[in-house]
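Q: I have 374 residues here and want to know how they pack in 3D. Can you give me a structure?
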Amino acid sequence: MKNSVLLACLFVVMLNQSCAQDVENKAITPDKVPFSPQLLIDEMQIPWGMVFLPDGSMLVTERSGTLVHFKDGKKTTVANVPEVYERGQGGLLDIELHPDYENNGWVYISYVSSEGEEKGGNTALIRAKLVDNSLIDNELLYKASPNTTKGQHFGSRIEFDNNGYLYLSIGERGARDENPQDITRDGGKIYRFFDDGRIPEDNPFVGTDGAKTAIYSYGHRNPQGMVKHPETGEIWNHEHGPKGGDEINIVKAGANYGWPVITYGINYSGTPITDITEKEGMEQPIHHWTPSIAPSGMTFITTDTYGSDWNGSLLVGSLVFQYLERLEMDGTKVVSQEKLMVDIGRVRDVKEGPDGLIYVAVEGKGVYKLVPAP
């Protein structure tokens, strides 16, 4: 038995190596980095998500449950934030503005809520309005169930597409054999809503008996990055693999992304999860990382602020290796990758601001602004 397990592990490792992508790893020297990082907001333990208001100020979530409004160099704590269930990887998570925020004022927040009959919590989504540094008109739009005291895989990112639909990612909550492949259960899914939380009639599982009709795609593990492609309007996400197999995917209606039936990763113990990396009816990632970088946050560079060569690149934060990674793209193909801000700390989120600058949230430090080199 021991020998068979060892051989299986060796097979999975070899499989991962044989599936390694033809991607150039670029070395970048400090004098060629086209920016210098400036700590803009300091003394934040786990800044999880951030968004820019029309006046140039920022809202930044801290996983502990605090929402910070940063304006004119000052941090103010926002009142009336929903009570969060803080456990393990869960707490106050992502934040996003309505595309028509200047007219309707809606702010969307994902967090872990204990609301429900069971002990523990699960990922929830609210919208509210910010008035005098307080949230008002709070509305619960979605709450995953059931609650559980497990502390892992809450997701969660929020994004709008060009048609005004709202997307929310929720991790599989550590129940890999129950949740991600079952469309009657929450967890391991990306959901699509109207901006008020109603479920679109053309969602792929509307009319399916027992299905959670908010589901747009399934078979995800723990998606902690989501962004709209600036040219195609497609929703891209990335998600944590186990030991190896972090993925970037393009979200498609009704698509199954395979977890845990197919994966490029193995268990943290080194034992295999599955002996296959692809299967008919399941999507392949456009990119995967082995070993895992533990990706969090994702944004596209859409300007020449840091040079024309960087325009169109995808930026992804690494929690485990503590750097910012730049992926040079050719359509949906990653052609090269390079490490930036090496050893800066656990990069939790990255955003391109309305000023064309990149902002990076780092655990234990705060939010950095990447100032272009002269």
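Q: Anything worth noting?
A: Residues 1-20 have pLDDT under 50 and may be disordered. Helices lie at 2-18, 101-104.
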